[in-house]
Amino acid sequence: MIIIENLPIQPEAGVPAYEYICDKCHQSFSLHISYAQYGHVAAACPHCGSEKVTRRIGKVRVSRSDDSRMQQFTDLADERKMEDIDKNPAEIGRMMRQMSQESGAEMGEEFNEVVDRLEHGQTSADLENDLPDPE
Ligand SMILES: [Zn+2]
């Protein structure tokens, strides 16, 4: 899961810095304002004084919590669409295994079984029929 973090650039600095880009002179700058001030203080460009400024996205991070790891695979599956899985389950299986290995996450028995079955060419329908219902 990719999270666009609408959070300060330097949270460790005490007062967060928010990055802006000026719509008028196109210079970027950062403002040090507190959470409480944010949204109440008009940001103005220090270069030309214009208040037409656009907040820049601070940074993009990939969430590393265990729950969201599984979410990454789910998102990936959504992106590829279920019909793609059915067209080429072996490829999806390899991709999921590779992601799992790269992340170093222990995905659990069921995940490994799903990957294994995909790699052997089973479709999502096969998987649904075979996997036990969650209790
Ligand atoms: Zn400006």
UniProtKB/TrEMBL annotation:
<dbReference type="Pfam" id="PF09723">
    <property type="entry name" value="Zn_ribbon_8"/>
</dbReference>
<feature type="domain" description="Putative regulatory protein FmdB zinc ribbon">
    <location>
        <begin position="16"/>
        <end position="58"/>
    </location>
</feature>
<feature type="region of interest" description="Disordered">
    <location>
        <begin position="99"/>
        <end position="135"/>
    </location>
</feature>
<protein>
    <submittedName>
        <fullName>Putative FmdB family regulatory protein</fullName>
    </submittedName>
</protein>
<dbReference type="InterPro" id="IPR013429">
    <property type="entry name" value="Regulatory_FmdB_Zinc_ribbon"/>
</dbReference>
